[in-house]
Design goal:
Strand order of the largest sheet: 10-11-12-14-13
Radius of gyration: 51 Å
Shape: extended
Strand content: 25-35%
Length: about 675
C-alpha cells in the first residue's frame, strides 16, 4: 500500500495538471464539497498532507521510472507502437487508448473520473487524491500550496535596542534645541508689521446678497461668467400684445383671415390666434402648455450651444509676403510694336536665335519673316495650306525654318547668312534621290524625304497631320508630333543624314507636344493627362509627372532643365520641380479659358502663358541653385491688346532671346511685341 502511494506521489510530481487542460478540475472540486473558504478543515488535514508529501519525497529514489526514453522528445514515439525500453532492452508497448465515446461512457459511470489524469511519460492514468486536488486548487488561485503557510507573518525584530550601551551618536545635545530661536522671533515681528501696514491681506468671507432678482436669469452672475465653458441657455420668447386676454381690436383676425389660415401650409400658418375674453375666469386652459414645456426642455438640453469667438484678422496679413514688382524689373509691360500682314489667325511664331528676326505662320497659308525692331515684313512664302507650327533652328550659323503644314514638314532656307553659310545650307537641303527612314524600321510607307523645287526646301511627308515641330539644341535633330499617329506618333529626324526614327518607347495616351532638354539627352513627351520624361541614351523612362489636369495643351522646360511648366485647357498652369516631386509644386488658376501656350525666357527669370481669353500673363519665376530653397513664383503683369475671333484669343507667345520682351500671336491676325 505504501509503495502504491509512493508511485502515485511520484506520478503527481511528473505530471503538471496545468498542462493537461482539465478545466473542470476546479468546478468538479466545488461540486464535491471542497470549499476553499474552510480554512479550519485545511489546517486540520494539513498534517496528514504534509506527512504524505514527506513520505513521497523520502521514497522517490526507491521506485525507478518505467519509461526509459531519456531526454528524447515524446513526439518521436507518436507513430510507434512502443514507448521506450525496459531494463532488459525490450520494447514497452503502449496501452490501447479508448476512443472518445468509450471514455465518455466511462466518465458518466465513474463519479471519480474527473480526478484521473493521463500521464504521457509513463503511459498510464493517475488518480489524484483529495489532498493533491487541494494543492492544485490553491496553486491555481495564486496561493501557497500548503495551508499552514502564512505569507503575512508579523516581523520579528531579532535585535534588542533596550539598554544599549553604545548609542548611534555620542555627541552632546546642542544648545539650540532648548533655547528660543531669535531668527523666528524676527520673522514673526516682520509679519506682524506687514499685517498692520496692510501689505498682507487675508481672504474675507463671502457675504451673501440680501436682495436678488426674483424673475431674472442667473446667467449674468459673476460666478458663471468666470468659467469659459458656461454658455447661457436661450431665452424663451416673451408674450406680446397678441397673447393678452383682452387685446386691441387690430390684433384680432376676422373670420375671413381665419379661413385663409386653413389654406396655408402648416409651417407658414400662425401658431397662435389672438382671442378676446371679458375676464380671467372665462379664459380656458392652454391646450399646448405641456407641448411647449416639453419643447422648452428639449431646447435646454438638446440644442447645441457653441461659443463663437470672433477673431479680428486683417485679410492682407494672410496673403503671402511677395517681393515688390518694382524690385523684379525688367519685364514686359506695354505693347510697343504690332506686326500686321496676315489675313487670318496667326497660329505660331518663332524668334531667331540672335533676336533680330521673327517668323510667323498663319491659317491664310503664308509664312512670314519680320524684322523685330522695325516691324518690316522681309519675306513671304505662299504655302497654300494652314500653317500649324513654325520653329527656327537654334544654331545662328544655320538659319533654316521648320514649318508644319498638314501632314508635311518643310525645312525652308531663310536666305540669311553669308555666302559660305548659304552654300552649306543648300548642300544640306539637297536630296539626290528620295530616301526612306532608318533601316531598322521599315517606315517608307509612313514617311519620305522629298525635295521641293517650288520653295527650294526639304519636304518631310508624314502619313498623319503634324501638330508641332521642335528642334534639338545642336540643330541637327528635330522632333514631330502626330496626335493620330498611334505607335509612330512621335518621330525624330536627323537633318544631316536624312534619316528618321520613331521614339523607342510605348506612348500611353495621345501625345500633345514634345520638347528636348536644353542641356542633356532627355526628351519630354506631354500627353493629355501627364508628362513622361525619357533618357534617349539609356532608352528608359526616368520620371512620370502627374499633372492632375483635365487635358494638357502645352509644355515648356526651364533653361536649367530641372523645372517644367505645363498649361491645360481648363485655364490652369502647373509648375513642376523635378528634383522635388512628380506632382505639381504650384498650380496657378489664372486664365478663365484654355491656355494655348507657355514659354520660359532664356536668360531672365520670366515665364508667360497665353490663353483664348485674349490675355497673356507674365510671371517671375526664380530658380535657386540651393536645393533647400523652393522656386519663387510671383505674378507680374496681365498683357491685353488682342481681340477675340471665332472664340479664339492669343494663339502663341514667345520671349525674345536677349531682351525681356514678349511676342504674342493672336487670332485677330496680328502679332504684338510687349516691352518693359
Amino acid at each position: 500500500m505504501r509503495t502504491t502511494n509512493h508511485q502515485e506521489s511520484r506520478k503527481l510530481e511528473k505530471v503538471n495538471p496545468l498542462e493537461t487542460g482539465d478545466t473542470d478540475l476546479v468546478e468538479r472540486d466545488n461540486d464535491d464539497g471542497l470549499d476553499d473558504n474552510h480554512d479550519q478543515d485545511e489546517r486540520s488535514e494539513s498534517p496528514q498532507l504534509h506527512q504524505a508529501v514527506d513520505e513521497s519525497d523520502s521514497s522517490e529514489d526507491e521506485v525507478g521510472p518505467r519509461n526509459t526514453i531519456g531526454d528524447v522528445p515524446l513526439e518521436w514515439y507518436e507513430d510507434e507502437k512502443h514507448i521506450g525500453y525496459d531494463i532488459a532492452g525490450k520494447k514497452i508497448r503502449k496501452k490501447e487508448r479508448q476512443d472518445k465515446l468509450d471514455s465518455f461512457l466511462a466518465s458518466a459511470d465513474d463519479s471519480k473520473n474527473w480526478r484521473k489524469i493521463y500521464d504521457e511519460y509513463n503511459d498510464e492514468e493517475v488518480e489524484l487524491t483529495k489532498e493533491e486536488t487541494k494543492l492544485i486548487r490553491r496553486m491555481l488561485k495564486g496561493k501557497a500550496p500548503h495551508a499552514e503557510f502564512d505569507p503575512y507573518a508579523p516581523y520579528v525584530d531579532w535585535f534588542k535596542w533596550d539598554d544599549a550601551k553604545h548609542p548611534l551618536s555620542n555627541a552632546p545635545e546642542p544648545k539650540r534645541r532648548f533655547i528660543p530661536s531669535k531668527w523666528e522671533s524676527k520673522k514673526v515681528v516682520e509679519y506682524v508689521r506687514a499685517i498692520r501696514k496692510g501689505l498682507i491681506k487675508f481672504d474675507q468671507p463671502k457675504e451673501e446678497p440680501r436682495f436678488y432678482l426674483l424673475w431674472g436669469d442667473d446667467s449674468s452672475s459673476a460666478d458663471r461668467t468666470k468659467h469659459l465653458a458656461y454658455i447661457p441657455p436661450p431665452k424663451p420668447k416673451l408674450p406680446g400684445h397678441e397673447e393678452s386676454y383682452n387685446p386691441s381690436l387690430e390684433y384680432i383676425p376676422t373670420q375671413e383671415e381665419i379661413n385663409s389660415y386653413q389654406l396655408m401650409y402648416e409651417e407658414d400658418r400662425p401658431k397662435f390666434i389672438p382671442r378676446r375674453f371679458t375676464s380671467f375666469r372665462s379664459i380656458p386652459a392652454y391646450e399646448n402648455a405641456i407641448k411647449d414645456s416639453f419643447e422648452r426642455c428639449l431646447d435646454l438640453y438638446l440644442c447645441p450651444r457653441v461659443r463663437k469667438r470672433r477673431i479680428n484678422i486683417d485679410p492682407e496679413s494672410l496673403k503671402p509676403k511677395l517681393p515688390s514688382r518694382k524690385d523684379l524689373r525688367p519685364y514686359p509691360v506695354t505693347s510697343y510694336l504690332e506686326y500686321r500682314g496676315h489675313e487670318a489667325a496667326v497660329l505660331s511664331i518663332s524668334v531667331e536665335p540672335s533676336g533680330q528676326w521673327i517668323a510667323s505662320g498663319s491659317t491664310d497659308g503664308t509664312v512670314r519673316i519680320w524684322e523685330v525692331e522695325t516691324g518690316r515684313c522681309l519675306r513671304v512664302w505662299e504655302i497654300g495650306e494652314a500653317v500649324q507650327h513654325v520653329a527656327w533652328n537654334p544654331l545662328p550659323e544655320l538659319p533654316v525654318l521648320a514649318v508644319s503644314v498638314g501632314a508635311d514638314v518643310l525645312i525652308l532656307n531663310t536666305g540669311f547668312g553669308n555666302e559660305e553659310e548659304q552654300k552649306k545650307i543648300k548642300a544640306l537641303l539637297h536630296i539626290g534621290t528620295p530616301t526612306s527612314s532608318d533601316d531598322s524600321d521599315d517606315m517608307s510607307s509612313f514617311l519620305s524625304w522629298l525635295e521641293d523645287d517650288k520653295h527650294d526646301c526639304i519636304r518631310l511627308r508624314h502619313y498623319r497631320t503634324v501638330s508641332s515641330v521642335e528642334w534639338h539644341r545642336k540643330g541637327d535633330y528635330l522632333s514631330t508630333v502626330m496626335p493620330a499617329g498611334e505607335s509612330k506618333a512621335i518621330l525624330i529626324h536627323q537633318l544631316s543624314k536624312k534619316l528618321t526614327q520613331r521614339l523607342p518607347f510605348k506612348l500611353h495616351g495621345l501625345p500633345v507636344s514634345s520638347v528636348f532638354h536644353p542641356t542633356r539627352s532627355i526628351f519630354f513627351v506631354a500627353t493629355k493627362k501627364n508628362v513622361r520624361v525619357y533618357d534617349l541614351l539609356k532608352q528608359k523612362l526616368i520620371k512620370k509627372l502627374e499633372t492632375q489636369l483635365r487635358e494638357v495643351s502645352s509644355i515648356a522646360v526651364h533653361p536649367a532643365g530641372d523645372n517644367v511648366i505645363v498649361g491645360s485647357k481648363e485655364g490652369k498652369l502647373c509648375w513642376f520641380d523635378m528634383d522635388l516631386s512628380s506632382k505639381p509644386y504650384k498650380t496657378l488658376k489664372c486664365h478663365p479659358k484654355d491656355i494655348t501656350n507657355v514659354a520660359f525666357h532664356r536668360s531672365y527669370p520670366l515665364f508667360a502663358s497665353c490663353s483664348d481669353d485674349c490675355t497673356a500673363y507674365v510671371f517671375h519665376g526664380m530658380v535657386y541653385a540651393d536645393l533647400n530653397q523652393n522656386p519663387l513664383i510671383v505674378p507680374l503683369e496681365i498683357l491685353r491688346g488682342h481681340t477675340s475671333s471665332d472664340g479664339r484669343g492669343v494663339m502663341d507667345c514667345k520671349f525674345h532671346p536677349r531682351q525681356p520682351w514678349l511676342f504674342t500671336a493672336g487670332a485677330d491676325s496680328s502679332i504684338k511685341l510687349y516691352c518693359h
